[in-house]
Amino acid sequence: MLPDVRHPPIAAATLRRLELASAPLAAACLAEMERTRPWFAELPADQRAGVALVTQTGVANFVSWLREPDRTTPLTAEAFRTAPRDLARRISLRQTVELVRIAADVFEEHLPPLAGDAAEQHELTEAVLRFGREIAFAAATVYAGAAESRGAWDARLEALVVDAVLRGDDDGALVSRAAALGWNPAAPVHCLVGSAPGSGSESPQLIVELRKLAARLHHDVLVGVQGRRLVVLLHPTGRVAPEGTGPVLTEIAARFGAGPVVAGAPSPDLAGAGASVAEALAGLAAAPGYPDAPRPVATRDLLPERALCGDPTARRRLAEDVLAPLHDAGGELLRTLAAYLEGGASLEGCARALYVHPNTVRYRLRRIAELVGLSPTEPRQAFVLRTALVADRTARVRESVSGTEPLTPLDNARPTGIDSTAPAEVLS
């Protein structure tokens, strides 16, 4: 830092010569900027005019500062207050520092001939260094304020996007706002919902940490903190590990607060993410019913708990997605599944109820596991299958009452004896 040493004032005649040379000095600065910085010459005319205005104001303020050195801060800040509001968004801080350096070099070249003697030359040279330093600090302050305003605006816009997804909006405003944040609205979206860590006052720092983590994992992220609830939307930016997004979701879920974290089904784009987030929120409400659930737990793994909590989407998925393959395969598998689960998961008891051989029951249970991907002999998967049976029956009862489908409860179907479609070895 230069020492704060008081020097003799510049002579009035020298100051007058500087005032008369202000316009040529500003023109020389702009000419040097255009000559040495190709990007400056390519700027639109309005932006070059903004830089010219800042330069001319800076040169005039330099002369005023030589008259009153104690007014350094007001005069240097005034140079940037005259600039157009969007100039800081168009020209980076690095480029601004380059332009300030060019202006300082031009001053050092053109000011010595205007001095009255060697002492004034030394004073003017040191004054250029001091004023250039203050101009650089003023520029940094302007850009810091612009960055803070931009960050606050981005945070509000991000909150609006997440809130729109939670409401299920799929209009053009959602897409345009997400695009303004640099988000690709056409990319597939994964979502995580859970509780925010801490008391909620740490949400700005949490968002920064999640953004850094997602960037390290090659994902873009949108974060919404609503009270104690944390919602994270993310999509890959290109380079994703061969094992997919599973490890990414697990690592991000570790930053959530205590309690369950639910991962929604992938959505093809941001506009269609509302349904996935709605299912994830329903899963979060039902997750306490599955205390041994992994973290995160997929919404499809919470279908029984969601159905018991009254989620109509879960009941429909149980009836359609879980039991649809069994309906397509014929009624024998459904009857066997119902008899097995409701008979205490006993092979012999199920075989007696259906008047078939126990090997036939084993064969049918294996077929159910192959078709549905859920084994009736595993406790958790058996619970899912039994809940699906109940959801299917209640759905059929409602449809029958409404007159859309005849009532054919599975329990009332007569057993048909030995399964003629089973392989011969299971009948022995």
UniProtKB/TrEMBL annotation:
InterPro entries: CdaR-like_regulators, CdaR_GGDEF, PucR_C-HTH_dom, PucR_C-HTH_sf. Gene3D superfamilies: PucR C-terminal helix-turn-helix domain (1.10.10.2840). Residues 395-428 are annotated as: Disordered. The lineage of its organism: Bacteria, Bacillati, Actinomycetota, Actinomycetes, Pseudonocardiales. It comes from Pseudonocardia autotrophica. It comes from the Bacteria. This is Purine catabolism regulatory protein. The gene is pucR_6. Belongs to the CdaR family. Residues 333-390 form the PucR C-terminal helix-turn-helix domain.
